[in-house]
Design brief:
three-stranded antiparallel sheet; about 10% strand; two-stranded antiparallel ribbon; binds zinc ion; single chain; mainly alpha; about 160 residues; globular; Methane Monooxygenase Hydroxylase, Chain G, domain 1; 6 helices
Protein backbone atom coordinates (compact mmCIF):
# COMPACT_ATOMS: atom_id res chain seq x y z
CA UNK A 1 0.00 0.00 0.00
CA UNK A 2 1.40 3.39 -0.94
CA UNK A 3 1.49 6.22 1.52
CA UNK A 4 0.35 9.54 0.03
CA UNK A 5 3.77 11.18 0.18
CA UNK A 6 4.08 14.89 -0.49
CA UNK A 7 7.44 15.76 -2.04
CA UNK A 8 8.47 19.32 -2.83
CA UNK A 9 10.84 20.46 -5.56
CA UNK A 10 13.80 19.98 -3.20
CA UNK A 11 12.92 16.33 -2.77
CA UNK A 12 11.76 16.88 0.80
CA UNK A 13 9.00 14.53 1.85
CA UNK A 14 6.28 15.46 4.29
CA UNK A 15 3.52 13.51 5.95
CA UNK A 16 0.00 14.65 5.04
CA UNK A 17 -1.44 17.46 7.12
CA UNK A 18 -3.56 16.25 9.98
CA UNK A 19 -4.87 17.91 13.12
CA UNK A 20 -4.56 17.73 16.89
CA UNK A 21 -3.50 14.45 18.47
CA UNK A 22 -3.12 12.87 15.05
CA UNK A 23 -0.55 15.54 14.17
CA UNK A 24 1.36 14.92 17.40
CA UNK A 25 1.35 11.20 16.79
CA UNK A 26 2.54 11.65 13.21
CA UNK A 27 5.41 13.82 14.46
CA UNK A 28 6.38 11.26 17.09
CA UNK A 29 6.21 8.51 14.46
CA UNK A 30 8.37 10.52 12.07
CA UNK A 31 10.91 11.13 14.84
CA UNK A 32 11.05 7.42 15.69
CA UNK A 33 11.37 6.63 11.98
CA UNK A 34 14.62 8.60 12.10
CA UNK A 35 15.99 6.42 14.90
CA UNK A 36 14.93 3.29 12.99
CA UNK A 37 16.49 4.31 9.68
CA UNK A 38 19.68 5.48 11.44
CA UNK A 39 19.98 2.09 13.11
CA UNK A 40 19.39 0.21 9.88
CA UNK A 41 21.93 2.37 8.02
CA UNK A 42 24.59 1.44 10.59
CA UNK A 43 23.56 -2.21 10.54
CA UNK A 44 22.63 -2.57 14.21
CA UNK A 45 19.71 -4.60 15.49
CA UNK A 46 16.51 -2.52 15.71
CA UNK A 47 14.36 -4.62 18.00
CA UNK A 48 11.13 -2.62 17.92
CA UNK A 49 9.51 0.80 17.97
CA UNK A 50 6.42 2.45 19.41
CA UNK A 51 4.67 5.76 18.90
CA UNK A 52 1.69 7.49 20.48
CA UNK A 53 0.70 11.15 20.60
CA UNK A 54 2.56 11.37 23.92
CA UNK A 55 5.80 9.48 23.46
CA UNK A 56 7.85 7.26 21.24
CA UNK A 57 10.54 4.69 21.72
CA UNK A 58 12.85 2.79 19.41
CA UNK A 59 14.78 -0.13 20.88
CA UNK A 60 18.12 -0.81 19.28
CA UNK A 61 21.46 -2.38 20.03
CA UNK A 62 23.68 -0.07 22.01
CA UNK A 63 27.00 0.48 20.30
CA UNK A 64 29.89 2.93 20.65
CA UNK A 65 29.36 6.40 22.10
CA UNK A 66 29.98 7.89 18.64
CA UNK A 67 27.19 5.80 17.14
CA UNK A 68 24.88 6.46 20.10
CA UNK A 69 25.33 10.17 19.40
CA UNK A 70 24.42 9.58 15.77
CA UNK A 71 21.38 7.46 16.68
CA UNK A 72 20.33 10.06 19.26
CA UNK A 73 20.41 12.80 16.64
CA UNK A 74 18.53 10.81 13.99
CA UNK A 75 15.11 11.55 15.51
CA UNK A 76 15.69 15.29 15.22
CA UNK A 77 17.28 14.79 11.80
CA UNK A 78 14.11 13.03 10.63
CA UNK A 79 12.02 15.94 11.94
CA UNK A 80 14.17 18.17 9.76
CA UNK A 81 13.52 16.05 6.70
CA UNK A 82 9.82 15.21 7.22
CA UNK A 83 8.67 18.52 8.70
CA UNK A 84 11.17 20.71 6.85
CA UNK A 85 12.73 22.34 9.90
CA UNK A 86 15.24 21.04 12.42
CA UNK A 87 13.35 21.30 15.69
CA UNK A 88 14.96 20.67 19.08
CA UNK A 89 11.73 20.75 21.08
CA UNK A 90 10.18 17.37 21.73
CA UNK A 91 13.65 15.86 21.69
CA UNK A 92 14.91 17.01 25.08
CA UNK A 93 15.66 13.46 26.23
CA UNK A 94 17.67 12.75 23.10
CA UNK A 95 19.51 16.05 23.39
CA UNK A 96 20.47 15.44 27.01
CA UNK A 97 21.77 11.96 26.16
CA UNK A 98 23.69 13.26 23.15
CA UNK A 99 25.20 16.19 25.07
CA UNK A 100 26.26 13.93 27.95
CA UNK A 101 27.93 11.52 25.52
CA UNK A 102 29.46 14.34 23.49
CA UNK A 103 30.89 15.92 26.63
CA UNK A 104 32.59 12.65 27.48
CA UNK A 105 34.19 12.62 24.05
CA UNK A 106 35.37 16.24 24.28
CA UNK A 107 32.91 17.44 21.64
CA UNK A 108 31.72 21.06 21.80
CA UNK A 109 28.15 22.28 21.34
CA UNK A 110 29.19 23.35 17.84
CA UNK A 111 30.45 19.81 17.15
CA UNK A 112 27.04 18.45 18.21
CA UNK A 113 25.27 20.91 15.93
CA UNK A 114 27.46 19.83 13.01
CA UNK A 115 26.82 16.18 13.84
CA UNK A 116 23.08 16.90 13.69
CA UNK A 117 23.44 18.41 10.22
CA UNK A 118 25.57 15.43 9.16
CA UNK A 119 22.89 13.03 10.44
CA UNK A 120 20.25 14.93 8.49
CA UNK A 121 22.36 14.71 5.33
CA UNK A 122 22.88 10.97 5.87
CA UNK A 123 19.13 10.33 6.34
CA UNK A 124 17.93 12.70 3.61
CA UNK A 125 18.42 10.25 0.69
CA UNK A 126 16.14 7.84 2.58
CA UNK A 127 13.16 10.18 2.89
CA UNK A 128 10.77 7.66 1.33
CA UNK A 129 11.80 4.99 3.84
CA UNK A 130 11.38 7.54 6.65
CA UNK A 131 7.89 8.36 5.41
CA UNK A 132 6.96 4.68 5.17
CA UNK A 133 8.19 3.89 8.70
CA UNK A 134 6.31 6.97 9.95
CA UNK A 135 3.15 5.87 8.16
CA UNK A 136 3.41 2.30 9.48
CA UNK A 137 4.06 3.49 13.06
CA UNK A 138 1.19 5.97 12.92
CA UNK A 139 -1.13 3.25 11.68
CA UNK A 140 -0.04 0.36 13.93
CA UNK A 141 1.29 2.19 17.06
CA UNK A 142 4.18 -0.28 17.28
CA UNK A 143 6.47 -2.17 14.93
CA UNK A 144 8.15 -5.48 15.71
CA UNK A 145 11.71 -6.30 14.73
CA UNK A 146 10.33 -8.41 11.88
CA UNK A 147 8.09 -5.61 10.59
CA UNK A 148 11.02 -3.20 10.72
CA UNK A 149 13.16 -5.69 8.81
CA UNK A 150 10.46 -6.16 6.18
CA UNK A 151 10.07 -2.43 5.54
CA UNK A 152 13.83 -1.89 5.71
CA UNK A 153 14.41 -4.63 3.16
CA UNK A 154 11.82 -3.10 0.81
CA UNK A 155 13.84 0.14 0.88
CA UNK A 156 17.27 -1.53 0.65
CA UNK A 157 18.18 -0.60 4.22
CA UNK A 158 18.67 -4.04 5.75
CA UNK A 159 22.24 -5.30 5.63
CA UNK A 160 23.11 -8.90 4.80
CA UNK A 161 24.33 -9.47 8.33
CA UNK A 162 23.06 -7.69 11.40
CA UNK A 163 25.41 -6.96 14.25
CA UNK A 164 23.94 -7.70 17.50
ZN1 LIG B 1 14.17 10.30 20.00
Amino acid sequence: MMFPVNMDKYGRVSVPETEGDATKKAHVAGHEAGHIVGGLLRGVRVAGAEASEYRGETRMTKTTDEERIFFGLCGMAADGILVGELRRDGSQGDLKTVRDLAGGLGMSAQDVEEALLDARDELAPHSRALAEFARALTERDSLSEQEIQNIGRAYGLVAETVRG
